Structure of alpha-1,2-Mannosidase:
Amino acid sequence: MQWRSIVVGLVVLRLSLSCVLWLAFGLGPNVSWGFNFHLKESPKRSYLSFFDGNKDEYVRRYSSFPDTLKAKMKGMAKEMFYFGYDNYMKYAFPEDELNPIDCEGRGPDVLNPSNININDVLGNYSLTLIDTLDTLLVLGNVTEFQRAVKLVIDTVSFDKDSTVQVFEANIRILGSLISAHILLTDPKHPFGNVGFEGYDNELLHLAHDLAVRLLPAFENTSTGIPYPRVNLKTGVPPDSINETCTAGAGSLLVEFGILSRLIGDSTFEWVARRAVKALWNLRSNETGLLGNVVNIQTGQWVGKQSGLGAGMDSFYEYLLKSYILFGEKEDYKMFQAAYESIQNHLRKGRESCNEGEGDPPLYVNVNMFSGEIMNTWIDSLQAFFPGLQVLNGDVDNAICLHAFYYAIWKRFGALPERYNWQLQAPDVLFYPLRPELVESTYLLYQVTTLTSLRKMPKCGYATLHHVVDKSKEDRMESFFLSETCKYLYLLFDEDNPLHRSDNKYIFTTEGHVVPIDKRFREKQWNDLFPCEEGALAERKPKNPPLPSNISNCNRIPEERRYTLPLKSVYMRQIDHMVGLF
């Protein structure tokens, strides 16, 4: 598949708006897996009869979306962003995050270095401001973008005694600096002439400085898979563990690769590609699946769970996005093989999303070697996967999985961090304002609920500590402004420069905007891996042929492009599945 056919404009499959408003339906855990509804469809009934506006409650309620409502939602999304951003700047900057309940700033937990929930992310480098730079441009605020860039240039230094997670520093800080630099210097000026006098590539220099400080993670590792954490001053801590997750080690290639191609130094892309290939070569010979935790010295899998959520999610995402950006065929070969293994071993339920009988399609957690189900929960990070399926052209599967996650949202007004699909109840109850569902919604070009997110404390938007009783935790993570608000705004801003047909952009896993540009398909060096030709062919997984439930854009029936994408009978089934009836 050529990258142009994958990308489609902004890398957004822009379905007909009347076709995608089904997301606003109540979808939501009453039916455990293994319980079949035995849905019967009369062959004499036309498919379109399911969408008879006089008979179907979903169509009656959601078959249109007035321009006035879109404009209102756009304004609400912008208001949400500025409520969080302005209060961060007022009460928290230059610290990393805002505590929205106490109206205070938050930095690393220096008194408790083992508090990795905080210290993995917060490095004492004005995280939220940096992470938010390109969102300001997406919202059209050139003046504040320029002011924020100057603040970063004048106040941010990475010469800090902070031990951070390589993955988080890469996607939140490095990715944002690179994105903002590219948008500042882009000769196409998609957001207008946003540059300013005196800018001398300082953001790129900061990005380079940070990347150099992350490089020690790749040293002294027998496999080439990096250590999970580095100290920005001293390198890998002496007490560092030898275990890392697949996503953390294998989701560095987009940012490192762009940096290498901007500055003409292959080092960063080389180490990131080496880590991806090392992980790929550790996949199971039988299933083609990877585990979720690996020992970086021995190459042994410590965590043998294979799924789409935490610990694995962005590994798959970056295989495809790296191919789209860099055009390296091996990236797409790996993605194709990984996607085939996912469909063969993780996907359960009926063969087709919109046809037939049986349980709704669902992707479960399995043992990487045997393919047997390991548990009965899924996590909120998996909600990114429908968006990735859209990029891959598998719209049919994306629709069903997206419907399931939105059903959970409809029931709780948020996505619990873990949801047990057999017990039909949350296993882990908090919701830290994650963007994955909104991201997938945007890539399906649909609407989502703003009202659930608008219940805010005094100074910003707080993590939900409990999705049932709605108690809050005093933390607003940077991705709420850099991703969640950005995707919400773009859902309703049809005239945004990113949506113009002549502009082709892709989002990093942190939601940062980077152009699909021919300069990123050109290398200023001869060969990244001169001794590794044919590495991908070394171990071919023993999988059956690609199943028919992998579809592409052209396989969506013509009539479904102008109606609701999921038949009402299946919508109701998913409603029951998550307990809305």
Observations:
- Confidence is low (pLDDT under 50) at residues 1-54, 530-551.
- The chain has one domain: 78-522+563-578.
- DSSP finds 20 helices and 18 strands in the chain.
